[in-house]
């Protein structure tokens, strides 16, 4: 009974780090498989790129930036490599998506819900870092 009480009421660094690992893995895998992998596949297959241009920098560059964020940064975050940097890039990516859909497309909350569900975890991971179970931790520990 004491073990259950301690688990529920006391702060455990191991549990926090396991929670960050699970959180990081679920969010980054969902983003990679849902969005990043398709974009990277288009690039590597040499397919024609048709994409919106929310920043006024051209559709191709916008697509490559989104592919980098949703593909490469999602994988970095999964591994816990440059986690805060990758999360910050993803926060920027989803802020652009949010403003594009909220103000240029005039979508209501229903259209923005998925954006919030990605944006908030990436803000949290930018603030917390990846935790002990990450390449960042092992690389910093080794140096």
Topology:
Elements: H1 2-9, H2 13-45, H3 59-79, H4 83-104, H5 109-128, H6 135-142
Key descriptive features of the protein:
143 residues, mainly alpha, 6 helices, globular
Description of the molecule:
By secondary structure, this protein is mainly α. It has one domain (13-142). Helix content is 78%, strand content 0%. It has 6 helices and no strands. It has helices at 2-9, 13-45, 59-79, 83-104, 109-128, 135-142. Helix 2 (13-45) crosses helix 5, helix 3 (59-79) crosses helix 4 and helix 4 (83-104) runs antiparallel to helix 5 (109-128). The radius of gyration is 18 Å and the shape is globular. The mean pLDDT is 90.
Question: Approximately what portion of the residues adopt beta-strand conformation?
Answer: under 5%
List SSEs in N-to-C order: HHHHHH
Compute the number of helices: 6
Q: What value does the average pLDDT take?
A: 90
Number of domains: 1
Largest sheet: none
N-C termini distance: 42 Å
Total strands = 0
Low-confidence stretches: none
Query: How much helix, percentage-wise, in residues?
Result: over 70%
Using the CA coordinates, give the radius of gyration: 18 Å
The assigned structural class equals: mainly alpha
Which descriptor suits the 3D outline? globular
């Amino acid at each position: 009974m004491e073990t259950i009480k301690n688990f529920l009421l006391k702060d455990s660094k191991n549990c926090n780090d396991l929670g960050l690992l699970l959180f990081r893995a679920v969010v980054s895998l969902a983003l990679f498989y849902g969005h990043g992998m398709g974009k990277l596949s288009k690039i590597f297959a040499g397919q024609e790129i048709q994409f919106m241009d929310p920043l006024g920098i051209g559709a191709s560059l916008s697509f490559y930036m989104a592919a980098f964020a949703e593909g490469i940064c999602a994988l970095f975050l999964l591994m816990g490599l440059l986690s805060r940097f990758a999360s910050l890039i993803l926060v920027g990516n989803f802020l652009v998506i949010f403003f594009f859909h909220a103000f240029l497309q005039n979508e209501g909350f229903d259209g923005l819900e998925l954006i919030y569900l990605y944006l908030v975890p990436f803000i949290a991971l930018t603030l917390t870092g990846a935790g002990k179970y990450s390449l960042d931790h092992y690389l910093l520990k080794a140096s």
